[in-house]
Amino acid sequence: xxxxxxxxxxxLFVFNLTFGQIDRTKQPDSGPDPxxxxxxxxxxxxxxxxxxxxxxxxxxxxxxxxxxxxxxxxFDGEKVGxxxxxxxxxxxxxxxxxxxxxxxxxxxxxxSISVTFGGGSxxxxxxxxxxxxxxxxxxxxxxxxxxxxFDKEKTKLLESLKSDVNNIDAIxxxxxxxxxxxxxxxYGEFTTEQSLKNVEFSDVIEYHSxxxxxxxxxxxxxxDVKAKxxxxxxxxxxEPWKKGKLPVNPEPIYTDNVGLTEVNxxxxxxxxxxxxxxxxxxxxxxxxxxxxxxxxxxxxxxGGSEGYLFKNLRDDNGWxxxxxxxxxxxxxxxxxxxxxxxxxxxVTDSTxxxxxxxxxxxxxxxVDPQRLKDVKAAYxxxxxxxxxxxxxxxxxxLGQKLNNLPDDYYETFIExxxxxxxxxxxxxxxxxxxxxxxxxxxxxxxxxxxxxxxxIGFPINYFDKFANPVAKPIFNKAIPEGLTALDVxxxxxxxVGGRENxxxxxxLVMKADVTIPGAPFVPKATMRQKFPNKYSQKxxxxxxxxxxxxxxxxxxxxxxYTEMQGQRVEFDETQLNxxxxxxxxxxxxxxxxxxxxxxxxxxxxxxxxxKIKVTQDGKESHRYYSVETxxxxxxxxxxxxxxxxxxxxxxxxxxxxxxxPFFMEYPAQKLEFKTTEFELNKEIKDSSx
Length: 689
Fold this sequence. Notes:
By secondary structure, this protein is an alpha+beta fold. It has three domains: 42-167 and 182-238, CATH 3.30.830.10; 262-470, CATH 3.30.830.10; 485-688, outer membrane lipoprotein receptor (LolB), chain A (Clam), CATH 2.50.20.10. The chain contains 20 helices and 26 strands. The strands form three sheets. The chain has a 13-stranded antiparallel sheet with strand order 19-18-17-16-15-14-26-25-24-23-22-21-20, with helices on one face. Strands 9-10-8-11-7-12-13 form a seven-stranded mixed sheet, with helices on both faces. A hairpin with a 2-residue loop joins β18 and β19. The longest helix is centred in the first third of the chain and has 18 residues, at 2-19. The two termini are 58 Å apart.
């Protein structure tokens, strides 16, 4: 104890002696800029045309390989999707090694191997280098392409398209590219169900044969290898890859921006949020003298949580989780600037106004000196950190070659960033952020958004989900005179079986298959309800031959809890009160006229529906009933984070003379419940809850 005290006093003495004279009222001077030294890659060329760049680095006993087949973008026309299917099929075995054996050996070696339509990568311990190279080269040169795998990947891609039919992110991504470049441009075309159906197995084989050639291929190697030793190995593994005739694909052309800024609106009646994208095309290349100023202009505007957009839309207004901008560049000088956010429908017009304000601000005002200094420091910090990753070093080495960058481009990167002035930044913002020639692409619910957008003053053009121009939709139709919300609800009760039948149901059990995007399994859901308000829901999955409970929620009339991955969380007071307030299995039996308001007629998944506002215990929700059938199509509730949670219903079928939905969807989470069985009035013990 005494020894520890003496050591502590000694440390304190040395600290005061060394640092005691520091003037803490002054910020320490910055140290010199760090030097970035990659060294010049060692290069050689194989007989079949492959150019190899080697960055020797023996700090760790690992090697990273990157393959890039250099070619101009391909326009696929009526068969868009063929390259996506091919990419999904590649890297899963070779003509000599079955898929499972291939993947098992890669895992055993502690390596990673990927092969895509445009290239691939491999990562290995130095001691396993020869075998991993043998596997990787075999997968590139002799991939296992079977019709069975083709059918599987094509089906998966079709299902993915179907699940995204009303996803505003998928729609906005597709439409913004198509409108910016044109659908007859390699950057503007997109995959559709029809284009996928046009793709045959023979197309994939032909595509691979035509484009998978080494003539213009690059392999970048970073890690614990010597270039002189590696050359013989790569010759052995890759020279069997035979040259082919280079396909002729023209360079992509630059597409002009719109003459005057306009709104391009895509109506998604089921959308609970809007995606707002400001975009214009840009000719930026890395070799441009204002490239570094343009990078920083984008960073100041929307490069992160300190950007103008984020500070305004999230921090000041709380309208979104994040708002960002992006500025693309490539060797063709064909790219885009974008500024975007996803916001509630009710503030879509205000979001447009605020983005205009922030883009105008960076074009007209000099950025604050301290902010510019901070942005440079943050940007360079990320840049320097990224140089520690082998993948970054590889991409830099290849990018330097493909973009004709000077030899010292990355070594002088820090210097070039630091040279940018506020005036340089403003000049670049005016050049690349075309506020007068923007497309403002908005995907959202027109009935709640368009009237506010019209007041801003930009012309509005309307498009469907596939970038086809359409006439302005009719968003709200006239409500029949004399019709009330209670009439709509009572009509629903009649349509699904009548009050007497519904009141006779004391228990309900639903079993369903659950579709989760990307999951390699199909979970099973079981929901039990018992009059008046007891319920339980369990979602289980078979994983490696064992049944596992993914989630479970139970309420026994007095207490409730949710369990996930073995962690049990008891209901809080709000959840308990809401669960206790439920009066029965069918909500519509218990609504009163005072709780209901008939708001409008809206389109839900292209079907006219009465929108009913329900107010219970001070909380509002919305329910949509089909004008044609009277059945419930959708509900909207607001969660604790002020997000609107939508549930869609469909595929109604009769069960014991009661119409029940066999399909239920949570579009925001991309979850689908397809009911396999309903049981009514089955005996359920209270102990089940």
